[in-house]
Amino acid sequence: MRITRKAEYAIQALTYLAMAKPGELLLSRDIAHHRHIPPKYIAQIILDLSRSGLVRAVRGAQGGVQLMRPARSITIRQVLEAIEGPMAINPCLLTDDVCFFEKPVEEGCRLQQIWGEAQARMLEVLEGSSIADLLPAGVNGASGTLEAV
Question: Mind listing the pLDDT tens digit for each residue in 32-56?
Fold first, then answer.
């Protein structure tokens, strides 16, 4: 499994949105500019994040994009799955009919057990990390606004 550049761009877009004022809509072209995301990617990224319920996109002259919930409640796993789909370090973890070893049904595949344990640990880390964890010091992950000092 490899994290794509598109997924990295999605994380960058979300960190930018997390720093907006509550209720503020940001233009996707501004997100692309400030996070160095190629314009050809930003529309698809916003669409994928919107379909997953992570952002809200409003069309029109007064439109823009905003987070649907606080940055601390958006996990890195949710972002990666919004962009890449279900995560698996090996295809055999997604479906039973993909196995590179012959295995008796009653025994199970030992390698699949190892892949499963490795994946569980990876998902635990990704689930335990949020967009708020990536924000600069002094930015509140709850609302995306600067904390009062």
Answer: 999 999 988 999 999 999 999 999 9
Give CA–CA dist 70/144, Å, rounded: 7
Reported as type and span, the H/E element at residue 55 is: strand 55-58
Find out if CATH 1.10.10.10 is the number for domain 5-86+129-134.
yes
> What are all long-range contacts of 119-122, with beta carbons under 8 Å and residues at least 24 apart?
119/87, 119/88, 119/89, 119/90, 119/93, 122/87, 122/89
Question: 3-state SS of the chain: helix, strand, coil percent to 5?
Answer: 50, 10, 45
pTM of the shown model = 0.83
